[in-house]
Structure formats: structure tokens, C-alpha cells
Amino acid sequence: QSLPQQKLLTWLSVLECVEVFAEMGTARVWGEMGRWTIIVLIQLAKAVLRLLLLLWYKAGIQTSPPIVPLNREQQQPLHSEDMEDNSSGKDQTYVGRRSSRVVRSLQSTPSLQSRHWGSPQQREESQSRRAEEMNQPPTPLGLQETIAESIYITRPLLHLLSLGVWGQRSWKPWLLSAVLDISSLSLLSDLKDLNRRERAELRRRTILLLYYLLRSPFYDRYSEGRILLLLRLLADYVPGVGFVTR
């Protein structure tokens, strides 16, 4: 990735990290009007940054969070003692004569902090495989897929616009947002040969469709009563759960 693209990803990650805090803080200081103003500004900034990544830098399907968090256990380098053993030519593993089971030799056992289960070959293979998956370039998007990703990026802005036009109690913003989400996923479903990160992102977006059951006005009219009934039944008939559900 180029340096400007890395900066865009960094700013996008910062916005996603602080948007809830900014919304709550603005609502506390400037009230409801300030809250909606900061929501619109943050969503507009996020949409602009994502569209730049999509159209200018050809970033493909964008994940959330934009920068994948570092797994320090997976990225942990080999211990210095292991490196010394390798340089001195010591065997790191022992293969059983009858069972053919590969075990680590006692001479190459690392410290407790860097110890892991499995043979060194398995660890090296898994690390190299994860590195290849993380370094895979994004899948090129055609016109249909670019439109689908653009729909997904601009959906929050269209939802906010529909809320301003029809109000928060109307079904139209809820339906518009759901239609845009489903349309984007259906257009992206034709993509083949996605890498692991992109497949995980599409699965995440599909699972997030369940959140529409918890969004107003659907929640206010249908989900709330059933969820409260279920919690009440759990509190009355399942021992030990009542304190939490009540």
C-alpha cells in the first residue's frame, strides 16, 4: 500500500474508534441538535474516505475495522534461543520410531512466554500461510461490484437523509436501509476467488442483517414484546438466570 492510502486507512480507523464517544460527548454538551450534526459530519467523512479508497486506490471490498488489528501471538518471532539452536545445528524435533509422532526435543524448548503447542514446522507453515493471506492484493472489482460497494458505503448517508425527510418513526428509512444492504450483498455475491479477509467481511455484513430486528420501528412494534417475554420466561423458570434477565 502506498503512503497516502495508509494515511487514509489510519484516519478512517480513528474515526471509527471515536465516533461513538464524539456522539455521546456532543449530545451531553450541545444537546440533540449537536448530536445529529456530529453524526452527519462523521458519516460524511467516512463515506468520502471510503469512496477515495474504492475509486482512486482500487482498495476493493473494504473491511471494518479498515486496519486489521495485529495479533501479537501470531506475529511473535522465534525466540533467540531457537535461533541459536538453529545456527548451532541442533535438532528441534524428534520423530518416534513406531508412532512416527513428531515432538519437540528438550534441547530446543523455548521460554514459557514464547512457548506454543505444536511442532516448529507447523508453526512456521501457519505463520507463512497467514502472512500470505494478509499480503494478498484486493480482488479487482468490476462495474457491478464497484456499484455494490458504493451502495454499501453511501447507505449511512442515505439513511440519515431519509430520517430527516420522513422522521424517526417512519418505516421508510428502515426499509430503504434494508433494501440497500441486501442489494449490495446480492450484487457482491457473484464475485469469485475472494481472499480470506474479503470472505470474512461479506460474512460479517450478512450477519449484521440480523440487527434490523433490533432497529426502530421494527423493534418497537414487533421485537421488543417478544424479547421481553423471552427474558421474563427465562427469569421465572431457569434457575440462576433471573438476576441477569431482570
From TrEMBL:
UniProt similarity note: Belongs to the peroxin-16 family.
Polar residues bias: start-end ranges: 106-116
Keyword terms, alphabetized: Peroxisome, Peroxisome biogenesis
Transcription in keyword set: no
Domain of life: Eukaryota
Designated name of the protein: Peroxisomal membrane protein PEX16
Basic and acidic residues composition-biased segments: 122-133
Gene source species: Eudyptula minor
Localization: Peroxisome membrane
